Amino acid sequence: MVGNERLTGFVNSLYKGNTPFLEALEREAREDDIPVIRKDTQAFLRFLLKEHDPGSILEIGAAVGFSAIFMAEYSSPECRIRTIENYEKRIAPARQNIERSGYSHKIRLICKDAAEILPALQEGFDMIFIDAAKAQYPFYLKEADRLINPGGLIIADNCLQEGDILESKFAVERRNRTIHKRMREFLKEITASERYTAAVLPIGDGIAVAVKDK
Ligand SMILES: C[S@@+](CC[C@H](N)C(=O)[O-])C[C@H]1O[C@@H](n2cnc3c(N)ncnc32)[C@H](O)[C@@H]1O
Is 139 close to ligand 1, i.e. is its CB under 6 Å away? Predict the structure, then answer.
């Protein structure tokens, strides 16, 4: 959690819950130590889905499908979602959860390495949600920039790295230094771009949101 824990707890207590299916899925995922978007990130994403009303979404990092099902629940019936996951152990549960959610018609799970599939994608998306390997965020941004439609929204989770992002690289554990360096590159690039209007917000573990010029 990037912000003040009590304050975040208070704000989270204000939000109405999700559907019983999503609440159960989130609980199961947390019990199994599977990462899923946090409550405050969910509230922000729900807001963006309503406000932006995307017709197509690309998600990088499905885990067991929670956020894809969440986006299916809170987007218009016409919206189509593609979500990418390459970790063998998560693919079968993700497929099963999508099936059980009743949103198989909206969600397509792509079981490949994002590094392989992203360069092969061609069509435009109205929203791209980046939530996979943190050290790959500059690469995901390059691909998202190519794939996002004019006026489209790029959203990236876990950008502030539990606050580590503001530390010098020497204060960060050695094994996290590449992530630290690449995440700073990503944040600089997305905020400095002439073609995007971006905001970096201390919601959840830090979220960056950028709208591409029309
Ligand atoms: C933080 S989790 C995603 C959580 C999910 N968006 C949710 O909130 O329900 C990140 C996922 O990205 C996947 N991932 C990491 N690197 C990847 C890659 N190169 N290609 C595809 N998936 C990848 C991991 O296996 C992991 O399941």
Answer: no
